[in-house]
Amino acid sequence: MFCGVTRSIIVAASSLMWLSGCGSSFKLPDAFSALRSHQQSEAGETTGSVAAQRGADAASPSAGSPTPLSTLVGQDPKSDLNLGKEHYRAGNFGDAEKYFRRAVETSPRDTEAWVGLAASYDRLKRFDLADRAYAEAIKLAGPRPEILNNQGYSYLLRGDLRRAREKLTAAQARDPDNPYIRNNLARLAQSERGGKPPP
């Protein structure tokens, strides 16, 4: 159901945590724009035009990064969701968490906001709260490869390599060509051999 949307979004990915960035920095998954597009189309809303991606978001993925979040901005650039993305990209994870939390409080069915909240909690090392936010995102959208990838990265951050492998292999089974998932699996293999955990 989401496959066509997912593939087109992956390249533009982790502005938000996902949500979930390139390089060694943790950026949010871009797939959440795909999830938002799907949610809007199911609700009969139009998704509008796609904004140009920032150079960093268009860069190829590097090892140890979740799926990036897009820099797409909805109709209101000052919405809690968009402010959360903005603060996340700037590395202000406490402020990002505040805005994503407000976004899920006002729109509890917004998968993108839940993933952003989870990613923010990961960066704040509040993994118990990250787990709850990921669970809500999966409850809404199902086990999307982008969410599973970010969960796997979250487990890598914690040093829980068994669960990281579980989530990342499940993500790869759903989207074998996803470069972020492949890179995280490579990073996992490095960690299993005694390499450094992700930043």
SSE layout and pairing:
Elements (H helix, E strand, L loop, with lengths): L2 H8 L8 E2 L10 H12 L12 H4 L21 H10 L3 H14 L4 H13 L3 H15 L3 H14 L2 H14 L4 H14 L7
Summary keywords:
59% helix, mainly alpha, disordered N terminus, Serine Threonine Protein Phosphatase 5, Tetratricopeptide repeat, 199 residues
Task: Report on the architecture of this protein.
The protein is mostly helical and 199 residues long. It has one domain (3-192): Alpha Horseshoe (Serine Threonine Protein Phosphatase 5, Tetratricopeptide repeat). Helices cover 59% and strands 1% of the residues. The protein contains 10 helices and 1 strand, in the order H-E-H-H-H-H-H-H-H-H-H. The protein has helices spanning 3-10, 31-42, 55-58, 80-89, 93-106, 111-123, 127-141, 145-158, 161-174, 179-192, and one strand at residues 19-20. Helix 9 (161-174) packs antiparallel against helix 10. The longest helix has 15 residues, at 127-141. The chain is globular. The protein starts with a helix and ends in a 7-residue tail after the last helix. The model is unreliable at 1-60 and 69-73 (pLDDT under 50).
